[in-house]
Amino acid sequence: MAISRLLVAILVLSFCRGEARSPFREETKTCHPECSRHGNCNGETGQCDCPFGLTGPTCTQRLLPACHPSTNDSTTPFHGAAYPKNCACYRQLRALPGACPDVKFEDPGGRDFLPCLFESMMGPDLLCYQYTDRPEAEQLSDSPPLDHPGLEWREMRSLPNLREEVLPRDKWPKEVKTNDGGVWRPLKDCPDNCNFRGWCQVGGAYQEHRGPDPWCNCHGYYEGKSCEIADPSHCYRNCSGVGQCVRGWCHCQPGYWGHGCTRRKAYASSAGWLPNHADIKVYVYDLPEMVAHRRENNDWWAGVDPIYASEVEFMEQLLGDWSVRTENPWEASLFVVPTFTIWYTRNTGGPYVIFNWVSRYLQQTSPFWNATGGRNHVFFATNDQGACRLQQAPDELQHSIKVVHYGLSPRRPYAHHSNPQAGQHMTGALPLPGHRFQGFPEFTAADVLEEHWMCYRPEKDVVAPNFLSRDWVIPENYDQTFNVSVLPDGRHVISRRPDAPERNITFYFLGNTPSGLMYYSHGVRQALNKLFGPGGKHNANGSQPRLDYWVNSPLHKHPRVDMERSKFCLAPTGYGWGSRITQAMMTGCVPVIVQDHMYQAFWDVIPYEEFSIRIPRANLHRIVELLDLVTPEQLIKLQEGVAKWHNAFHWFEDLGGLAYNYTVTSLKRRALRLWSEDYRHLRHAHRLRS
Ligand SMILES: *[C@@H]1O[C@H](CO)[C@@H](O)[C@H](O)[C@H]1NC(C)=O
Ligand SMILES: *[C@@H]1O[C@H](CO)[C@@H](O)[C@H](O)[C@H]1NC(C)=O
Ligand SMILES: *[C@@H]1O[C@H](CO)[C@@H](O)[C@H](O)[C@H]1NC(C)=O
Ligand SMILES: *[C@@H]1O[C@H](CO)[C@@H](O)[C@H](O)[C@H]1NC(C)=O
Ligand SMILES: *[C@@H]1O[C@H](CO)[C@@H](O)[C@H](O)[C@H]1NC(C)=O
Ligand SMILES: *[C@@H]1O[C@H](CO)[C@@H](O)[C@H](O)[C@H]1NC(C)=O
Ligand SMILES: *[C@@H]1O[C@H](CO)[C@@H](O)[C@H](O)[C@H]1NC(C)=O
Predict the structure, then answer these.
(1) Domain interval for residue 526
(2) Ligand 6 pocket: which of 541, 547, 548, 549 to mutate (most atoms <8 Å of CB)?
(3) Which residues form the signal peptide (predicted)?
């Protein structure tokens, strides 16, 4: 008896010791037994993760019932403005949490912040219909004939408040045009009702549809004559071979969940949050689709311009990189929040609404947000102006780490707050409009203001390069400059070709140069045009002609081909970040960066002095003198630097791309910051860096 008691005591003791060594234990929750039919059981939350549009413990409850085209339970809701929907659909959409947050947000620039998560909510007068003979619960967006009995036509506006008006009968539509110039038709006129995955129209976009036959214009993620083919290319990691890709969402086999079906385990901790300081780990959130998803725009648009796709590319690699990633948030130092930001902002919008909504959601639901006030949470904003003007947003939005392409961090930020607690932080008068730099056209006050948005805080944010499509990177094009050999183990060894074509263009730039809009590229493109354009000093007819400088030259063929023949390539900004530096690096052309107050991609990780030239705007008028001073030996050294570091600027792992790796490195350094005295200072300051 005594012995067995002793034994129990020893067992308990050793068990406790074991637990003291690792405070974490696996603890995977279970869901409703029927969850996995339509959803994924999230073993961490114990909730059934549903595709967008469905909810409940078995994902059979419709979130937006009136946006479905049918009662058939295989359908998904569509809520864009490309063709008329049931008014109840828009009402239900407007009522979703976060759909159009109560925006107390002043934008002195007067543009760009989309106040709703869903684009159809922002149209001024949305045409919609409603069945007068059915209750709300039976309303559908089933594309009936316009003159269907029992239909009533209305107009709706969501902002600033929901307003809905029945149209007088003489204003009811006789015909509805589609955006592409076609005519919208009832769904039943099309083959197989487009499988409820598209809308029906006559004429419009494509040559092959010029005839009288109705055809299916498929929603994003679907293709085929009757939209019968689901395009699987919009899911992370092709659902890891253990799931099916459904409209950008993975339906995983039981036991798997999360982005790309990459999750299998969940954890609990007896010691609370205890991040590992020796091996910095990253945890990736799997937010419910209702909170953020790879949504389509306006019914039809599932893709984004690939130059904005670095968030997706980063996630694709991180999700499979278990040397950095952890499924255990209790040991994670950094928390990546996939928000699919570019789908919400498009290129010219700002990420304020989606960040605000997701941050607040995490604040309420994740124990890890409040631990640091969100300071170790990572968001991507690859839109043109990235995180500009976030200083006007509430405090809890400002602290998190932003990964951007636009690293503008002005010396004297203009930081007018609409947030009374944050106070006014305009730290000095802005430069005067008018003449500012020699050789530049005049700036207006609005142009000057544009340069003084705080877009990037170097101590906590990360600048990564934009995504460049494969044709810039593939060996066949690359071969012009670089010798690519593939080793037996599949690795690529890339070196500069000794026989690369002669680079007899000294300086190259081709690009949009809107005259009079000096906020575009902060006047750099305009000043260069002045110098080399008609009447300019270095124009062919000027006092010091330079035919070896191609500035918007009529001789250009293709930027890639011309840059492969150039020694120096201008890397300016545009409306926001510019892609010329990544292009220059891919073509072996030494980038000449003219971007005042702008942090460059991986500035904290790679040595820019080895591969680039930097010129301030104040000296741009002397660019020819400055580049003439570069000796052939110095140029060769710079070109070798480009060859050595160019892989940092592209994302193709199979072609040696390191953009993912350096983003991780840069993020890890932000974790070190988090644990430094500096950072604590910031935390207590509760206000902007000045
Ligand atoms: C639902 O729609 C699918 C696809 O069009 C079809 O195969 C199926 O038979 C429909 N189910 C019902 C109950 O109508
Ligand atoms: C994606 O996965 C599916 C099955 O899970 C497979 O049939 C398909 O070939 C995969 N596609 C690619 C591009 O790997
Ligand atoms: C985090 O803090 C906020 C504000 O104090 C609070 O409302 C919220 O409930 C907290 N979140 C959690 C998960 O405890
Ligand atoms: C390319 O590199 C490989 C080895 O790295 C070398 O054998 C080959 O000669 C090089 N080709 C050219 C054209 O420089
Ligand atoms: C520059 O090189 C290209 C071929 O690489 C050649 O066609 C062109 O004539 C050269 N131009 C000058 C000005 O030497
Ligand atoms: C130079 O002047 C000639 C004659 O005035 C004109 O035809 C030509 O277009 C000018 N070239 C440039 C590059 O401005
Ligand atoms: C970059 O990261 C990938 C993981 O996605 C890894 O396989 C590769 O070895 C890393 N490359 C370097 C040079 O660290």
Answers:
(1) 470-657
(2) 541
(3) 1-20
Residue to probe by mutation, ligand 4, list 483, 496, 499, most atoms within 8 Å of CB: 483
- Indicate if 289 and 185 belong to the same structural domain: no
449 with 332, same domain: the answer is yes
DSSP string, 4-71: HHHHHHHHHHHHHHHHHH--EEE------TTHHHHSEE-TTT--EE--TTEETTTT-EESSGGG-S-S
Same domain (yes/no): 497, 425: no
Averaged pLDDT, 463-470: 96
Do 571 and 476 fall into the same domain?
yes
Asked if residue 408 is part of any domain, the answer here is yes
pLDDT at 667 over 50: yes
CA distance 473 to 562: 15
* For residue 347, pLDDT beyond 80: yes
Cβ neighbours of 456 (radius 10 Å): 24
Same structural domain for residues 475 and 454?
Answer: no
Candidate of 480, 485, 495 to mutate for ligand 4, largest count of ligand atoms within 8 Å of Cβ? 485
600 to each of 251, 507, 546, 580, how far by Cα in Å? Answer: 39, 21, 29, 12
Would the pLDDT of 501 be above 80? no
Cα diameter, the chain: 107
Residues with CB under 6 A from ligand 1: 72, 74, 195
Q: Is residue 15 part of a domain?
A: no
Same domain for 297 and 225: no
Task: Please answer whether residues 107 and 113 qualify as being in contact, where contact means their C-beta atoms are separated by less than 8 angstroms.
Answer: yes
* Ligand 4 lined by 492 (C-beta under 6 Å): no
pLDDT, tens digit, for every residue of 532-558? 999 999 999 999 999 999 999 999 999
Atom of ligand 6 nearest to the CA of 534: 14
Number of folded domains in the chain? 3
For the entire predicted model, the pTM comes to 0.90
Over residues 214-272, the pLDDT tens digits come to 999 999 888 899 999 988 788 999 999 999 998 889 999 999 999 999 999 999 999 99
Tens of pLDDT, residue by residue over 570-601, are: 999 999 999 999 999 999 999 999 999 999 99
Q: Is 372 in the pocket of ligand 3 (CB under 6 A)?
A: no
pLDDT tens, 205-215? 766 777 889 99
Same domain, 313 and 443: yes
Same domain, 477 and 459: no
pLDDT given for residue 677 in this prediction: 60
Peptide bond into 160 cis (omega under 30): yes
Three-state SS at 156? strand
